[in-house]
Design a protein that fits this description.
- The structure is a single chain.
- It is built from two helices and no strands.
- It has helices spanning 12-18, 60-80.
- The chain starts with 11 loop residues before the first helix and ends with a helix.
């Protein structure tokens, strides 16, 4: 899940009209499968309610944490051949 991207709108009024209308909140989890995983590239703006941070399905902080060594390895490969 990602945010509605402000930079994609030519008209700022149109963006303000739709911004924030999609938000994942705890009620979303009521009818989901037990193995659901919530991913997000971070940082979030207003598309994921902070109440979901502690939900077992929310793994976006782990996702971000795991991305650090991957980026480090890629930078090492690029800079050191």
């Amino acid at each position: 899940m990602t945010r509605i991207q402000k930079e994609r709108f030519l008209d700022p009024e149109e963006y303000h009209h739709v911004k924030g209308i999609y938000q994942l909140d705890p009620s979303f989890l009521k009818n989901t499968k037990p193995n659901l995983k919530i991913l997000h590239p971070l940082p979030r703006i207003d598309e994921i309610n902070t109440q979901l941070d502690k939900a077992k399905q929310s793994i976006y902080f782990e996702q971000a944490h795991n991305g650090v060594p991957v980026r480090m390895a890629l930078l090492n490969m690029i800079l050191n051949g």
